[in-house]
Amino acid sequence: MAERLNGHTLLVSLIATPIRHSLSPTMWNEAFAKKGMDYAYLAFEVGNEQLEDAVKGIRALDIQGSNVSMPNKQKIIPLLDELSPAAEMAGAVNTVVNQKGHLVGHVTDGTGCMRALREEGVEIKDRIVTLTGAGGAGTAIAIQAALDGAKEIRIFNIDDEHYETARENVRKINEKTNTLASVTPLTDQAAFKQSLAESSVYIDATSVGMKPLQDESLINDSDLIRPDLVIFDVVYSPAETKLLRFAREHGAKQAYNGLGMMLYQGAEAFRLITGEDMPIAHVKQALGLN
Ligand code: NAD
Protein backbone atom coordinates (compact mmCIF):
# COMPACT_ATOMS: atom_id res chain seq x y z
CA MET A 1 0.00 0.00 0.00
CA ALA A 2 2.67 2.54 1.04
CA GLU A 3 4.40 2.09 -2.32
CA ARG A 4 1.19 2.97 -4.12
CA LEU A 5 0.36 6.18 -2.25
CA ASN A 6 1.76 9.38 -3.71
CA GLY A 7 0.85 13.00 -4.41
CA HIS A 8 -1.63 12.03 -7.12
CA THR A 9 -3.46 9.30 -5.21
CA LEU A 10 -7.25 9.70 -5.39
CA LEU A 11 -9.39 9.17 -2.30
CA VAL A 12 -12.70 7.36 -1.84
CA SER A 13 -14.32 7.56 1.59
CA LEU A 14 -16.84 5.77 3.75
CA ILE A 15 -18.83 7.89 6.19
CA ALA A 16 -20.80 6.15 8.93
CA THR A 17 -20.72 5.27 12.60
CA PRO A 18 -19.92 2.74 13.97
CA ILE A 19 -17.72 1.77 11.04
CA ARG A 20 -14.45 0.21 12.22
CA HIS A 21 -15.84 -3.32 11.69
CA SER A 22 -16.63 -2.69 8.01
CA LEU A 23 -15.26 -5.01 5.31
CA SER A 24 -15.45 -2.22 2.73
CA PRO A 25 -11.94 -0.73 3.24
CA THR A 26 -10.38 -4.16 2.71
CA MET A 27 -12.59 -4.83 -0.34
CA TRP A 28 -11.79 -1.55 -2.04
CA ASN A 29 -8.08 -1.31 -1.20
CA GLU A 30 -7.51 -4.91 -2.27
CA ALA A 31 -9.31 -4.14 -5.53
CA PHE A 32 -7.20 -0.99 -6.11
CA ALA A 33 -3.98 -2.87 -5.40
CA LYS A 34 -4.94 -5.79 -7.65
CA LYS A 35 -5.78 -3.46 -10.53
CA GLY A 36 -2.83 -1.12 -9.92
CA MET A 37 -5.21 1.83 -9.50
CA ASP A 38 -3.83 4.95 -7.83
CA TYR A 39 -6.62 5.21 -5.29
CA ALA A 40 -7.08 4.75 -1.55
CA TYR A 41 -10.27 4.04 0.42
CA LEU A 42 -10.63 5.21 4.02
CA ALA A 43 -13.40 4.89 6.61
CA PHE A 44 -14.36 7.96 8.64
CA GLU A 45 -16.45 7.87 11.81
CA VAL A 46 -19.13 10.37 10.82
CA GLY A 47 -22.54 10.64 12.44
CA ASN A 48 -25.40 12.99 11.62
CA GLU A 49 -23.78 15.89 13.49
CA GLN A 50 -20.62 15.91 11.36
CA LEU A 51 -22.38 14.96 8.13
CA GLU A 52 -22.75 18.41 6.62
CA ASP A 53 -19.06 19.19 7.20
CA ALA A 54 -18.08 15.78 5.84
CA VAL A 55 -20.03 16.41 2.63
CA LYS A 56 -18.38 19.84 2.30
CA GLY A 57 -15.09 17.97 2.76
CA ILE A 58 -15.91 15.63 -0.14
CA ARG A 59 -16.23 18.68 -2.38
CA ALA A 60 -13.32 20.65 -0.87
CA LEU A 61 -10.84 17.76 -0.94
CA ASP A 62 -12.07 16.44 -4.30
CA ILE A 63 -12.78 13.04 -2.78
CA GLN A 64 -13.87 10.97 -5.81
CA GLY A 65 -16.85 9.44 -4.12
CA SER A 66 -18.04 7.99 -0.88
CA ASN A 67 -19.93 5.11 0.54
CA VAL A 68 -22.52 6.11 3.11
CA SER A 69 -23.91 3.91 5.82
CA MET A 70 -25.95 4.26 8.98
CA PRO A 71 -26.92 6.69 10.39
CA ASN A 72 -26.39 8.87 7.30
CA LYS A 73 -28.18 7.07 4.47
CA GLN A 74 -31.28 9.28 4.59
CA LYS A 75 -29.84 12.39 6.22
CA ILE A 76 -27.35 12.93 3.39
CA ILE A 77 -30.05 13.38 0.73
CA PRO A 78 -30.66 17.16 1.14
CA LEU A 79 -26.90 17.72 1.01
CA LEU A 80 -26.56 16.21 -2.49
CA ASP A 81 -27.16 17.76 -5.93
CA GLU A 82 -28.87 14.84 -7.67
CA LEU A 83 -30.24 11.36 -6.97
CA SER A 84 -30.47 8.25 -9.15
CA PRO A 85 -34.05 7.06 -9.78
CA ALA A 86 -33.58 4.16 -7.32
CA ALA A 87 -32.14 6.42 -4.59
CA GLU A 88 -34.97 8.89 -5.13
CA MET A 89 -37.59 6.15 -4.75
CA ALA A 90 -35.85 4.39 -1.85
CA GLY A 91 -35.20 7.67 -0.04
CA ALA A 92 -31.70 6.42 0.81
CA VAL A 93 -28.16 6.72 -0.51
CA ASN A 94 -25.22 4.37 0.05
CA THR A 95 -22.95 5.74 -2.68
CA VAL A 96 -22.05 9.30 -3.63
CA VAL A 97 -20.28 10.06 -6.90
CA ASN A 98 -18.39 13.36 -7.06
CA GLN A 99 -18.72 14.67 -10.60
CA LYS A 100 -16.47 17.76 -10.37
CA GLY A 101 -18.24 19.02 -7.25
CA HIS A 102 -21.70 17.90 -8.40
CA LEU A 103 -22.63 15.14 -5.95
CA VAL A 104 -24.91 12.35 -7.21
CA GLY A 105 -26.44 9.89 -4.75
CA HIS A 106 -27.09 6.25 -5.64
CA VAL A 107 -28.28 3.20 -3.76
CA THR A 108 -26.60 -0.06 -4.78
CA ASP A 109 -28.02 -2.57 -2.24
CA GLY A 110 -30.93 -3.39 -4.54
CA THR A 111 -28.81 -3.76 -7.67
CA GLY A 112 -26.38 -5.83 -5.58
CA CYS A 113 -29.17 -8.24 -4.65
CA MET A 114 -30.48 -8.43 -8.23
CA ARG A 115 -27.01 -9.12 -9.59
CA ALA A 116 -26.38 -11.80 -6.95
CA LEU A 117 -29.58 -13.51 -8.13
CA ARG A 118 -28.71 -13.05 -11.82
CA GLU A 119 -25.27 -14.60 -11.25
CA GLU A 120 -27.15 -17.70 -10.03
CA GLY A 121 -29.31 -17.68 -13.17
CA VAL A 122 -32.34 -16.13 -11.44
CA GLU A 123 -34.10 -13.35 -13.37
CA ILE A 124 -36.62 -11.23 -11.50
CA LYS A 125 -38.34 -9.81 -14.58
CA ASP A 126 -41.99 -10.91 -14.92
CA ARG A 127 -41.73 -12.97 -11.71
CA ILE A 128 -43.82 -12.86 -8.56
CA VAL A 129 -41.59 -12.09 -5.56
CA THR A 130 -42.49 -12.48 -1.89
CA LEU A 131 -40.39 -10.17 0.26
CA THR A 132 -40.20 -9.97 4.04
CA GLY A 133 -38.75 -6.75 5.44
CA ALA A 134 -39.05 -3.07 4.65
CA GLY A 135 -36.06 -1.56 6.41
CA GLY A 136 -33.00 -0.29 4.52
CA ALA A 137 -32.31 -3.58 2.74
CA GLY A 138 -35.97 -4.46 2.10
CA THR A 139 -36.72 -1.03 0.68
CA ALA A 140 -33.75 -1.03 -1.72
CA ILE A 141 -34.63 -4.56 -2.88
CA ALA A 142 -38.34 -3.83 -3.40
CA ILE A 143 -37.58 -0.69 -5.42
CA GLN A 144 -34.90 -2.35 -7.57
CA ALA A 145 -37.02 -5.47 -8.20
CA ALA A 146 -39.77 -3.16 -9.45
CA LEU A 147 -37.36 -1.12 -11.59
CA ASP A 148 -36.08 -4.43 -13.01
CA GLY A 149 -39.60 -5.43 -14.08
CA ALA A 150 -40.85 -7.89 -11.45
CA LYS A 151 -44.49 -8.75 -12.13
CA GLU A 152 -45.54 -8.53 -8.50
CA ILE A 153 -43.85 -7.76 -5.20
CA ARG A 154 -45.76 -8.95 -2.17
CA ILE A 155 -44.26 -7.47 0.98
CA PHE A 156 -44.88 -8.93 4.42
CA ASN A 157 -43.74 -7.13 7.57
CA ILE A 158 -44.33 -7.30 11.28
CA ASP A 159 -46.28 -4.49 12.91
CA ASP A 160 -43.35 -2.25 13.78
CA GLU A 161 -42.13 1.13 12.55
CA HIS A 162 -41.09 -0.42 9.23
CA TYR A 163 -44.67 -1.34 8.32
CA GLU A 164 -45.36 2.28 7.39
CA THR A 165 -42.21 2.27 5.21
CA ALA A 166 -43.54 -0.84 3.49
CA ARG A 167 -46.80 1.00 2.74
CA GLU A 168 -44.85 3.94 1.35
CA ASN A 169 -42.71 1.62 -0.81
CA VAL A 170 -45.86 -0.03 -2.16
CA ARG A 171 -47.40 3.34 -2.97
CA LYS A 172 -44.31 4.50 -4.88
CA ILE A 173 -43.90 1.23 -6.79
CA ASN A 174 -47.55 1.18 -7.85
CA GLU A 175 -47.38 4.83 -8.87
CA LYS A 176 -44.06 4.82 -10.72
CA THR A 177 -43.56 1.34 -12.18
CA ASN A 178 -45.57 -1.39 -13.94
CA THR A 179 -45.04 -3.76 -11.01
CA LEU A 180 -47.99 -4.56 -8.78
CA ALA A 181 -46.97 -4.16 -5.13
CA SER A 182 -48.82 -5.00 -1.93
CA VAL A 183 -48.12 -5.16 1.79
CA THR A 184 -49.68 -7.53 4.31
CA PRO A 185 -49.01 -8.03 8.01
CA LEU A 186 -46.74 -11.01 8.57
CA THR A 187 -49.21 -12.23 11.18
CA ASP A 188 -51.53 -13.14 8.27
CA GLN A 189 -49.82 -16.49 7.82
CA ALA A 190 -52.48 -17.78 5.41
CA ALA A 191 -51.72 -14.90 3.02
CA PHE A 192 -47.96 -15.44 3.47
CA LYS A 193 -48.36 -19.14 2.66
CA GLN A 194 -50.47 -18.43 -0.40
CA SER A 195 -48.05 -15.77 -1.61
CA LEU A 196 -45.09 -18.14 -1.33
CA ALA A 197 -47.01 -20.84 -3.20
CA GLU A 198 -47.53 -18.39 -6.09
CA SER A 199 -44.02 -16.90 -6.07
CA SER A 200 -40.86 -17.84 -7.95
CA VAL A 201 -38.59 -16.04 -5.50
CA TYR A 202 -38.69 -15.43 -1.74
CA ILE A 203 -36.34 -12.78 -0.37
CA ASP A 204 -35.93 -12.40 3.38
CA ALA A 205 -34.64 -8.85 3.95
CA THR A 206 -35.27 -8.83 7.70
CA SER A 207 -32.66 -9.06 10.42
CA VAL A 208 -34.06 -12.47 11.42
CA GLY A 209 -31.33 -15.10 11.19
CA MET A 210 -28.61 -12.73 12.33
CA LYS A 211 -27.55 -12.21 15.96
CA PRO A 212 -29.46 -11.87 18.28
CA LEU A 213 -32.15 -13.57 16.13
CA GLN A 214 -29.84 -16.34 14.86
CA ASP A 215 -32.14 -19.11 16.15
CA GLU A 216 -35.20 -17.74 14.37
CA SER A 217 -36.61 -18.17 10.88
CA LEU A 218 -39.74 -16.74 9.28
CA ILE A 219 -40.38 -20.10 7.59
CA ASN A 220 -40.82 -23.13 9.83
CA ASP A 221 -43.33 -25.12 7.78
CA SER A 222 -41.76 -27.49 5.25
CA ASP A 223 -44.89 -27.22 3.05
CA LEU A 224 -43.73 -23.72 2.14
CA ILE A 225 -40.49 -24.98 0.57
CA ARG A 226 -40.54 -26.16 -3.05
CA PRO A 227 -37.54 -27.21 -5.13
CA ASP A 228 -38.36 -24.46 -7.65
CA LEU A 229 -38.80 -21.66 -5.08
CA VAL A 230 -35.63 -19.56 -5.04
CA ILE A 231 -34.80 -18.48 -1.49
CA PHE A 232 -32.53 -15.51 -0.81
CA ASP A 233 -31.58 -14.40 2.70
CA VAL A 234 -29.85 -10.99 2.90
CA VAL A 235 -28.00 -12.10 6.03
CA TYR A 236 -24.49 -13.44 5.35
CA SER A 237 -23.21 -13.86 8.89
CA PRO A 238 -23.84 -16.62 9.78
CA ALA A 239 -23.29 -17.97 6.25
CA GLU A 240 -26.11 -20.47 6.76
CA THR A 241 -29.04 -18.95 8.59
CA LYS A 242 -31.75 -21.06 10.15
CA LEU A 243 -33.95 -20.24 7.13
CA LEU A 244 -31.34 -21.48 4.63
CA ARG A 245 -30.62 -24.64 6.64
CA PHE A 246 -34.33 -25.43 6.91
CA ALA A 247 -34.92 -24.74 3.22
CA ARG A 248 -32.02 -26.95 2.09
CA GLU A 249 -33.06 -29.74 4.45
CA HIS A 250 -36.52 -29.65 2.91
CA GLY A 251 -35.52 -29.76 -0.72
CA ALA A 252 -34.80 -26.17 -1.80
CA LYS A 253 -32.46 -26.33 -4.78
CA GLN A 254 -31.56 -22.65 -4.85
CA ALA A 255 -31.04 -21.09 -1.41
CA TYR A 256 -28.54 -18.23 -1.14
CA ASN A 257 -27.18 -15.98 1.59
CA GLY A 258 -26.46 -12.25 1.31
CA LEU A 259 -22.76 -12.54 0.59
CA GLY A 260 -23.23 -12.01 -3.15
CA MET A 261 -25.41 -8.98 -2.44
CA MET A 262 -22.74 -7.51 -0.18
CA LEU A 263 -20.02 -8.03 -2.80
CA TYR A 264 -22.07 -6.78 -5.75
CA GLN A 265 -23.38 -3.69 -3.96
CA GLY A 266 -19.69 -2.85 -3.42
CA ALA A 267 -18.82 -3.71 -7.02
CA GLU A 268 -21.59 -1.45 -8.32
CA ALA A 269 -20.41 1.43 -6.10
CA PHE A 270 -16.83 0.79 -7.32
CA ARG A 271 -17.99 1.00 -10.95
CA LEU A 272 -20.02 4.15 -10.33
CA ILE A 273 -17.15 5.96 -8.60
CA THR A 274 -14.12 4.74 -10.57
CA GLY A 275 -15.63 3.53 -13.86
CA GLU A 276 -13.80 0.21 -13.38
CA ASP A 277 -14.98 -3.32 -12.62
CA MET A 278 -14.14 -4.62 -9.16
CA PRO A 279 -12.08 -7.84 -9.36
CA ILE A 280 -14.65 -9.90 -7.46
CA ALA A 281 -12.76 -13.21 -7.28
CA HIS A 282 -9.70 -11.47 -5.83
CA VAL A 283 -11.77 -9.50 -3.31
CA LYS A 284 -13.54 -12.66 -2.14
CA GLN A 285 -10.20 -14.35 -1.63
CA ALA A 286 -8.79 -11.33 0.22
CA LEU A 287 -11.79 -11.40 2.57
CA GLY A 288 -11.28 -15.13 3.15
CA LEU A 289 -14.66 -15.87 1.59
CA ASN A 290 -13.67 -18.56 -0.92
P1 NAD B 1 -33.56 -2.43 9.36
O1 NAD B 1 -33.46 -2.35 10.81
O2 NAD B 1 -33.65 -1.19 8.54
O3 NAD B 1 -34.84 -3.35 8.99
C1 NAD B 1 -35.07 -4.58 9.65
C2 NAD B 1 -36.28 -5.28 9.05
O4 NAD B 1 -36.43 -6.53 9.74
C3 NAD B 1 -37.59 -4.52 9.23
O5 NAD B 1 -38.43 -4.74 8.12
C4 NAD B 1 -38.18 -5.19 10.48
O6 NAD B 1 -39.58 -5.07 10.53
C5 NAD B 1 -37.76 -6.62 10.27
N1 NAD B 1 -37.70 -7.40 11.51
C6 NAD B 1 -36.95 -7.13 12.61
N2 NAD B 1 -37.18 -8.07 13.57
C7 NAD B 1 -38.08 -8.94 13.05
C8 NAD B 1 -38.70 -10.12 13.53
N3 NAD B 1 -38.44 -10.59 14.76
N4 NAD B 1 -39.57 -10.76 12.72
C9 NAD B 1 -39.83 -10.30 11.48
N5 NAD B 1 -39.27 -9.19 10.96
C10 NAD B 1 -38.41 -8.53 11.73
O7 NAD B 1 -32.32 -3.30 8.88
P2 NAD B 1 -31.66 -3.40 7.41
O8 NAD B 1 -30.59 -2.37 7.31
O9 NAD B 1 -32.74 -3.42 6.39
O10 NAD B 1 -30.94 -4.81 7.52
C11 NAD B 1 -31.70 -6.00 7.57
C12 NAD B 1 -30.76 -7.20 7.45
O11 NAD B 1 -30.13 -7.16 6.19
C13 NAD B 1 -29.63 -7.18 8.48
O12 NAD B 1 -29.44 -8.50 8.94
C14 NAD B 1 -28.43 -6.71 7.69
O13 NAD B 1 -27.22 -7.23 8.19
C15 NAD B 1 -28.74 -7.29 6.33
N6 NAD B 1 -28.15 -6.54 5.21
C16 NAD B 1 -27.42 -7.24 4.31
C17 NAD B 1 -26.87 -6.58 3.23
C18 NAD B 1 -26.05 -7.33 2.22
O14 NAD B 1 -25.35 -6.71 1.41
N7 NAD B 1 -26.14 -8.65 2.19
C19 NAD B 1 -27.07 -5.19 3.04
C20 NAD B 1 -27.84 -4.51 4.01
C21 NAD B 1 -28.37 -5.20 5.09
UniProtKB/TrEMBL annotation:
It comes from the Bacteria. Belongs to the shikimate dehydrogenase family. It catalyses: L-quinate + NAD(+) = 3-dehydroquinate + NADH + H(+); shikimate + NAD(+) = 3-dehydroshikimate + NADH + H(+); shikimate + NADP(+) = 3-dehydroshikimate + NADPH + H(+). InterPro entries: Aminoacid_DH-like_N_sf, NAD(P)-bd_dom_sf, SDH_C, Shikimate_DH-bd_N, Shikimate_DH_fam. This is Shikimate dehydrogenase (NADP(+)). Involved in the biosynthesis of the chorismate, which leads to the biosynthesis of aromatic amino acids. Catalyzes the reversible NADPH linked reduction of 3-dehydroshikimate (DHSA) to yield shikimate (SA). Keywords: Amino-acid biosynthesis, Aromatic amino acid biosynthesis, NADP, Oxidoreductase. Homodimer. The keyword Secreted does not apply. HAMAP family: Shikimate_DH_AroE (MF_00222). Pathway: Metabolic intermediate biosynthesis; chorismate biosynthesis; chorismate from D-erythrose 4-phosphate and phosphoenolpyruvate: step 4/7; Aromatic compound metabolism; 3,4-dihydroxybenzoate biosynthesis; 3-dehydroquinate from D-quinate (NAD(+) route). Residues 258-287 form the SDH C-terminal domain. NADP(+) binds at G133, A134, G135, G136, A137, V234, G258. Pfam families: SDH_C, Shikimate_dh_N. The gene is aroE. The active site is at K73. Its EC number is 1.1.1.25. Shikimate binds at S22, L23, S24, S69, N94, D109, Y236, Q265. One of its GO terms (molecular function) is shikimate 3-dehydrogenase (NAD+) activity. GO terms for biological process: amino acid biosynthetic process; aromatic amino acid family biosynthetic process; chorismate biosynthetic process; shikimate metabolic process. Residues 14-96 form the Shikimate dehydrogenase substrate binding N-terminal domain. CDD domains: NAD_bind_Shikimate_DH.
